[in-house]
Amino acid sequence: MTYLKTIQSTLQKLILSISKSINFEVAIFDNECNLVTCTETYLKHKGSTVHIPSLQEVLSYGDVLVNKPGYMKSCMGCRFKEDCPATIEILNCIKLSNEPIGIIALTSFNEEGHKRLSENIDIYLDLLKEISDQISIIICNKNYNPHSIELNKILQVVMDTSPDALIITNNKGIVTHYNPTAFNYFSFCKHYEKSIHQILPKVIVEDILTGKNVAAGYNPHKNLHCIITSIAIKDNEKLSSTIIKIQKKNPLTISNKTNLIAPITSDLFKGNNKSIKIIKKQVQKLKHSNSSILITGETGTGKEILAKTIHAHSSRAHAPFIPINCAGIPETLFESELFGYEEGAFTGAKKGGKLGRFEFAHGGTLFLDEIGEMPLFMQSKLLRVLQEHTIERVGSTRSLSIDIRIIAATNQNLEEMVANKKFREDLFYRLNVIPFHIPPLRNRIDDIEILSKEFLHKYNIQLHKNISTFSKETLSVFHIYEWPGNVRELENTVEYAVNMTENDFISVDNLPQRILNNIPTSDISKIKKKIRNIEFDTIKATLDKYGWDVHGKTKAAKELGIGLRTLYRKIKSFEK
């Protein structure tokens, strides 16, 4: 039974109240795309079975606006295609511990509702998200059983004396106790009193609920950097409760990209090109490996994305992924940023000292981007870390054991730099144990359409657009262009086009001028001629199917999705 099925009666009351308040129809589905509950009108118009691909899209991407029901890509194959009873619909994913457990939909079956929802889309989307959060809370609290009053009082008095944030949970992850420090840490989150599913990363929660004792870096929000530890309390080898301690540490100051527990998914690295498939297979083989990795490739090919993918597929996925841009750290700060420092180590050193990036990455992965920019004196220190698995903070004489996996990346030719004495040969071999090379986008043309559609979906959501596709002419331009900026340049181009277009598709006219300036005029003409020929062949085949008389042309126009007058105009243009 799915999570939502367990509270079906509660959800029924909830959606009836929502529907009555805002005058929209409401439906809730579980993560297996089964209808859990809905309003009567919704059931009457759409039935108990809804087109699965449209729901799977919501489970994958979070929220979806359907403002052209029956004519959108996800509508393909639906029994209501081109004749959908709904006029507009917004759907939002319901999540528990950041995992999709279902979908809630607001639907209108009339033009008045279409107009009202269209004009207030942000308001209703925020409302759906709020409802989704409340449903998550209901599920979290379903099995909550408070401890005795006396024990509560004793525990609370003890916890209140601690300067560190303390939280106690039951074996379901429900928070039973917390102290004032924890309250202050998590006051930004309205769910802090409910469940660790709402305030801690999934990987940490999973370890806690399986009875593991956790020790990891943790970043609740951008201004708070902590170390989290937990102790499992067991009864007859079964988890009874967990004590969680969160200690505040000095925030990192160099890179705003750092996430102590990075929200990384395992499918970041996109593409079906043969070389990309080989890389993906190699990544799968490295799950239990701690060997160093060197990723090479031109700027913008996705080296950091590959590094995150390797981390997400590894046995270290529950631990921090710490990225460092070696080109962005001043040479004088390199050692203290990587290794940290002790209190009083130098003038201006902070009281209490500071943890370095290596310590924050303990148990996880340290990603050294643009490794070719690392100063030679630091290269020797990095080599020692790789050989001895220890570090020394600046100003300290004590060695600290460190457990990290190094992934380095560069767009430079390190072998050439070694030959020119600009990079240590011994460090190169220590880093290059497992090499990956990402080919430039111009050498993986078959991935361009896949990546373009991925970026289109991303910016549709970010920019509140509903652009369905690219024109064939646009995709032809994408295939001809050399893409010196690689995948990053392609993403920027799609973002620009989504901003510029006023249609429900992206045409060549919506592309940046710099792209068109680098496509020979003769190639543009060839593209237009090729598209014209494809269009002619399609129209001719459709007319041959239905006939060239008025009746056949009417049917052909309907199948082609164009007006009859447009069809006549196109036929006439082909005859010239």
Q: How many beta-strand runs?
A: 21
Q: Could you tell me how far the N terminus lies from the C terminus, measured between alpha carbons in angstroms?
A: 65 Å
Overall geometry comes to flat
User: What does the largest sheet look like?
Assistant: 5 strands, antiparallel
Low-confidence stretches: 143-151, 250-266
Q: Strand order within the widest sheet? A: 2-1-5-4-3
Specify the number of helices: 22
Topology:
Blueprint: H1 8-22, E1 25-30, E2 35-38, H2 40-46, H3 52-61, E3 63-66, E4 88-96, E5 99-108, H4 111-119, H5 121-141, H6 149-160, E6 165-170, E7 175-178, H7 180-185, H8 202-209, E8 215-221, E9 224-235, E10 238-249, H9 274-284, E11 293-296, H10 303-312, E12 321-325, H11 334-339, E13 340-341, E14 354-355, H12 357-360, E15 365-369, H13 376-388, E16 390-391, E17 400-401, E18 405-410, H14 414-419, H15 425-431, E19 434-437, H16 448-462, E20 469-470, H17 472-480, H18 486-500, E21 505-506, H19 513-517, H20 521-546, H21 550-560, H22 564-575
Parallel strand pairs: 11-18, 11-19, 12-15, 15-18, 20-21
Antiparallel strand pairs: 1-2, 1-5, 3-4, 4-5, 6-7, 6-10, 8-9, 9-10, 13-14, 16-17
Helix pairs in contact: 16-18, 17-20, 20-21, 21-22
